Every structure is written in C-alpha cells, then in structure tokens.
Amino acid sequence: MHFNDYPTRSLMTITNRPELVFTRGEGAWLYDSEGKRYLDFIQGWAVNCLGHSHKTMIHALTTQAQSLINPGPAFYNAPSAQLAGLLTDFSCFQKVFFANSGAEANEGAIKLARKWGRKFKNGAYEIITFNHSFHGRTLATMSASGKPGWDTMYAPQVAGFPKAELNDIASVARCIHDKTVAIMLEPVQGEAGVIGATREFMQQLRALTQKHHLLLIVDEVQTGCGRTGQLFAYQWSDIEPDIMTLGKGIGGGVPLAALLARDEVACFEAGEQGGTYNGNPLMCAVGVAILEHISQADFLAGVRERAAYFSDALLKLSNEYGFAGERGEGLLRALLLGKEIGHEIVEKARELEPAGLLLNAPRPNLIRFMPALNVTKDEIDLMLVMLRKVLDSIV
Ligand code: PLP
After folding, report:
1. Ligand 1 centroid from CA 136, angstroms
2. pLDDT in tens, 283-340
3. CATH architecture for residues 56-294
4. Protein residue with least CA distance to atom 10, ligand 1
5. pTM for the whole thing?
6. Which of 15, 81, 253, 316 has its CA 20 to 30 A from that of 149?
7. 233 close to ligand 1 (CB < 6 Angstrom)
8. Where does the chain hold its CATH 3.40.640.10 domain(s)?
9. Ligand 1 pocket: which of 101, 184, 222 to mutate (most atoms within 8 A of CB)
C-alpha cells in the first residue's frame, strides 16, 4: 500500500515524521508498506535491545497472553513478582515499582524522593538536576530536564529542580541547601548528544550526597539493561545509588519501565502510588524474558566487544572525513561531525536505494547510534558502507 492510502492525517502532529508507514520488522531491519527495507540503527530510540520481533519476545508475549493479561494492579501476579526478583538480584536495590514509560518511572522517583524528604528530612523537596538532561515529557519530568526551551514551553514549570553542570561538582555543591533532598542524573546524557558523566564525577556525587544526607537518583531509562555493556551503567563507577529508573530496553519494545529503590528509601505507603497498567503480567513476562537473555555474561561481553569494534570503526571514519571524533559507552555512541550536517545525513541515509538506513541526530552536529544490543559486526560494517555513501554525496 502507498503512504497516501493510510489515514495518517487523523494523527495529531507531535513531530515531523517522514512519509513512510512501517509494516514489518525483523532483527536489524524494518520494512515499509511498499516493501523497501531499512537498516535500523535507531531501534525505537534505544528500545529494541534484541532487535525487531525477536523470538524470545514473541514467545513470552504469546505464552503469557494465553494465560493471563490483566488481573489489575491491586492484585499480585507471577511475572511482575519474578521480574522484580530478577531486578533486585542483579542490582543494589531491594524494591521495585513497575511503570509504563520512562517518564512515569521518573515521576515515581521524584515522588519517592519528596516522600522521603517529608518523612526523613524536614520536608526537603528540591532535586538537583543537570543542564541538557532529559527525563521525560510529563510536566514534572520536563521541569527536571535541562533541555533548552523546555522551561517556558508549558509554563509554569513544576518547582524544585535547580540545575547544575554535568562533571562539575562545584556547580552541584552550590545548589545544595536545607530544602535539597536529592541529585538526579543520567549516567550518559543521551538526548544531549551522548555525553557521559565521568567515573570520578559519579564518585564525587556519591560522596557529596552521603555528606549532606541526600538521595542519589540515576535515570537509566536509556543507559540501563545492557546498553553500555554493563547491566546498569552505574556499575561502571563502583558506586551504589539510592534510586534507579529503567525504561526502553527493559521491555525490548513493549511499554514497560521500573522504579527501583533501596529498602530504607522505599517509603511509599498504601495508596500513595499506582496506575491501572502498572506491573501487568503481559509486559512483565516480556521483561523477564529480556532480562534473562541480556544478563548472561557472554551477552554483555559480546556487547562490550562489538562496542569496541564499532568505536574503532567510527574513529577511523571520523579521521577519513575530517570530523571531530566519536564518543559513547557500549552501544550508545555518537559520531561528532564538527559541522551542522546531522539532519541532512539522516534524511539522505533514509532515502538511500535500494535499502535505506535509519539514523538519529539529536543535535545537528552529531549522529547518535542506538543499534540492537545483538547487532552483528557484519551489520555494523554494512551500516558504515551505507553511511560513507551518504557522506560522499554531502562532504
Ligand atoms: N529518561 C531518559 C534518560 C530518556 O532517554 C528518556 C527517553 O528518551 C526518558 C527518560 C523518557 O522515557 P519515555 O519516553 O519512555 O517516557
């Protein structure tokens, strides 16, 4: 079917979408309604950690759908208990609340920190966040985010999110006063252009929060679940945060997110947090299948090995074209272009024939790569061949 045959005009405009309708996905490839295929290095924005329609996910979805889809959030169900158990076994946290999106998990983290402040810190409620950070699109998470322009878009903002500079501990210390309850950050700022918090900065934050009796919250919606080559990115810096949020990869493509907290921080009381679909067995069964798959030592070692290969190849390409290098953690990487040609590259890559290439430019001067975690070296090589073809037509 042709694009014009679909009633897309009935969809509210929220972003500028290309005139394509995707109808099928398999591994690293997406297919549009006219049969053209696209090598996908976006993967639902770092979501489809096992690629499109992986058999593990299909099996979990179809098996669970046949037994129980929705008993309701006020009852226990087996997959949510099992997934919570796996998450606490693999991390430094003891309690889990499931949500449907990263923003909702972060809202939960903000509420939990405020509740903890009311209970244990004289009503402190301010959470220090960072310039250029991204925590979601609800009002509170937009207010927590440091994305330029978001402070006025839906004014007035939710109060209580002073901003510091990533990797500048003095700027954080300056924001602390008697109303401060927590510091919240992404271990790698993805939307900002793949900018990592250094190991030293993470350790300084842990020391500072301990000194001032504050909570340390890591937003691992993008960096969690194997993306950086560890199950959780905080594990690279040998610290233990108090709260962590997960999203994206935890569901491998289905709406699932989680809020994790240490025992003494998990202070919600009955009736203070919830949601109709939270912890539903259909999504949690997928989460169990994904986590069992990606937590295997050889899977994460494979992510690290292919990440190193990818990083070397991007650096080589950068040198060839006179670009400004590359950066990232694991399979969340950016090619730094040194000039504002990112959007043109994205367009031209998608329009390549006979097969297109799907890339993302969160900033006009860089390209971000978020392939499936099981991407092969051959697929990385093919992506680079396609990218070179685009670059040769531009620079
Ligand atoms: N936090 C981070 C670090 C993200 O990258 C995102 C999404 O890109 C979110 C939160 C919001 O997640 P969601 O879009 O699932 O609400």
Report:
1. 5
2. 999 999 999 999 998 999 999 999 999 999 999 999 999 999 999 999 999 999 999 9
3. 3-Layer(aba) Sandwich (3.40)
4. 135
5. 0.98
6. 253
7. no
8. 56-294
9. 222
